[in-house]
Design brief:
Its main location: membrane. By secondary structure, the chain is mostly helical. 76% of the residues lie in helices and 0% in strands.
Length: 385
C-alpha cells in the first residue's frame, strides 16, 4: 500500500461523481465507487487487495466516518421529523414483522439457517444512502418527511440487532457490547448538551475559528475513534459507534464549520476509499461457482423492496417505500462480520452484497421517479398517513 495505490484509488473514486453527474440518471455517487472497486478487485483486474491491513484499516476509518456523517444528517431536531416519528416508527415495525416472515421463508428455501439474519437485512434501511438521494434530488413533501424517521428507526434498530442475529452463540456478549456503545453515546449527549448550553461550545468554536485550530474536528475525531475502539473491543460493528455518535451530534446541534470539515474529510477521501475497498472485497466470481447464491442475493434484494413497498397499504407511495428499502451499512457489516467469524458459506457474503445492490438500484430508480413527479399533486399525497 503506497502512494501509487492511493493515486489509483483517488482516480478510480472519480467514477462516482462522473456517473452521478447527469441529473436525469439520478445515480448515487457510491454506485460508481462500488463499481470501480469491483473492477479493480479480484473480480476483474486484481489490482486492489482488500486483505491488505493498511487498506482495511483506512476503510474502517472511512466506514466509521460515513456512519457518523449519516447519523449527523438525521434531522432529529426538525419539528416536522418529530411530527412524523409515530407514523415512521409504526411503519418500520410493520416492515420488520413482514421481514421476519420473509426471512424465515428464504432461509428454509435455501437451507442456510440464517432466518434472523435475512430478516434484519430485509427490514433495514440505510440513512447513509437515502439521505444523500433525498438531498441531491431535492425531494420534499409530507411523504418524504414521514419516511425519514422510518429510515432512521429501521437503520438504528437493525444496526443494534445485527450482532445479535449473525452470531447467536455470542448474542449476550454482542448485546452487552451494543449497550456499552449506546450507553456511552447517551452519556456523551448529556455532556455535550451541558457544554453547549453553558456556552463552552460557542467559545471553543470562536477560538478554533480565530486561531485556525480545527478544535471541533479534532475533538469529534477523538470521541468517534474512542467509541469505535470500544465497539471493536466489545465485538460490535463500528457502524453502531459511528451512527450513534452522529445522532448525538445531530441532537446537540452540529456547527456548520464542523459539518464542512467532516464533509471534506469523508467525501473527499476516506468515504470513497471505503466503497472502493468494499467493491474490491467482493469476488463476484464466487457467485459463478455457487449459482444458488446468485438467486439468494436477488431474492434478498427483491424481498427487501417488497416488504417496504407493502407499506402502500398504509398510504405510503410505492416509490417512497422503495426508496426506504435502500440498504448498505447493515449488509456490509453482515458480510464483513460473517466472513471474519466464518459464519457464512462460500459465496454467501457476495450474495448479501448482491441483495444490497438490488435495493440500491431500486432506490435509485424510485428516486428518479419521485424527482420527475415532484411537481404533481399526487407526489405529496398520502391519504392514509
Amino acid at each position: 500500500m503506497g502512494f501509487a495505490t492511493l493515486a489509483v484509488i483517488s482516480l478510480a473514486a472519480l467514477l462516482g461523481p462522473l456517473l452521478a453527474l447527469p441529473r436525469r440518471w439520478a445515480l448515487p455517487v457510491v454506485l460508481g465507487e462500488l463499481v470501480a472497486g469491483v473492477l479493480l478487485g479480484p473480480t476483474a483486474l486484481g489490482y486492489l487487495d482488500a486483505r491488505n491491513p493498511t487498506f482495511s484499516f483506512l476503510a474502517d476509518i472511512g466506514f466509521a466516518l460515513i456512519m457518523f456523517v449519516a447519523g449527523a444528517h438525521v434531522p432529529v431536531r426538525d419539528a416536522s421529523l418529530r411530527a412524523g416519528l409515530r407514523t415512521g416508527t409504526l411503519r418500520a415495525v410493520a416492515v420488520g414483522v413482514l421481514a421476519a416472515g420473509a426471512g424465515l421463508a428464504v432461509a428454509r428455501l435455501f437451507g442456510t439457517g440464517h432466518a434472523a439474519l435475512y430478516a434484519v437485512l430485509m427490514a433495514s434501511s440505510s440513512a447513509a444512502l437515502v439521505l444523500p438521494i433525498v438531498d441531491s434530488l431535492g425531494l420534499d413533501g409530507g411523504p418524504v418527511l414521514r419516511m425519514l424517521p422510518q429510515v432512521a428507526v429501521a437503520d438504528t434498530a437493525c444496526i443494534v440487532a445485527l450482532p445479535l442475529v449473525i452470531d447467536p452463540d455470542h448474542a449476550a456478549r454482542a448485546a452487552l457490547g451494543a449497550l456499552a456503545v449506546v450507553g456511552c453515546a447517551v452519556l456523551l449527549f448529556f455532556v455535550l448538551r451541558r457544554l453547549e448550553r453553558g456556552g463552552y461550545q460557542r467559545r471553543l468554536h470562536q477560538l478554533s475559528e480565530r486561531r485556525s485550530f480545527a478544535l471541533e474536528l479534532r475533538i469529534s475525531l477523538v470521541l468517534l475513534f474512542a467509541l469505535a475502539a470500544l465497539a471493536v473491543r466489545t465485538h460490535v460493528s463500528i457502524m453502531l459507534a459511528g451512527f450513534s455518535f452522529g445522532l448525538v451530534v445531530a441532537a446537540v446541534g452540529e456547527p456548520r464549520r464542523l459539518a464542512k470539515q467532516l464533509f471534506a474529510l469523508t467525501e473527499g477521501f476516506l468515504g470513497p476509499l471505503f466503497f472502493l475497498w468494499l467493491g474490491a472485497s467482493l469476488d463476484l466470481r464466487e457467485l459463478a461457482h455457487h449459482s444458488s447464491f446468485v438467486l439468494l442475493g436477488l431474492v434478498l434484494g427483491l424481498g427487501a423492496v417488497a416488504v417496504h413497498a407493502a407499506m402502500r397499504a398504509t398510504g405510503q407511495p410505492v416509490a417512497i417505500g422503495t426508496l426506504a428499502a435502500a440498504q448498505l451499512g447493515v449488509p456490509v457489516a453482515a458480510a464483513t462480520l460473517g466472513s471474519q467469524l466464518g459464519l457464512l458459506a462460500p459465496g454467501e457474503a457476495a450474495a448479501l452484497m448482491l441483495g444490497a445492490l438490488v435495493t440500491i438500484a431500486a432506490a435509485t430508480a424510485a428516486g428518479s421517479v419521485l424527482a420527475r413527479g415532484a411537481g404533481s399533486p399526487a407526489a405529496n399525497a398520502e391519504p392514509f398517513a
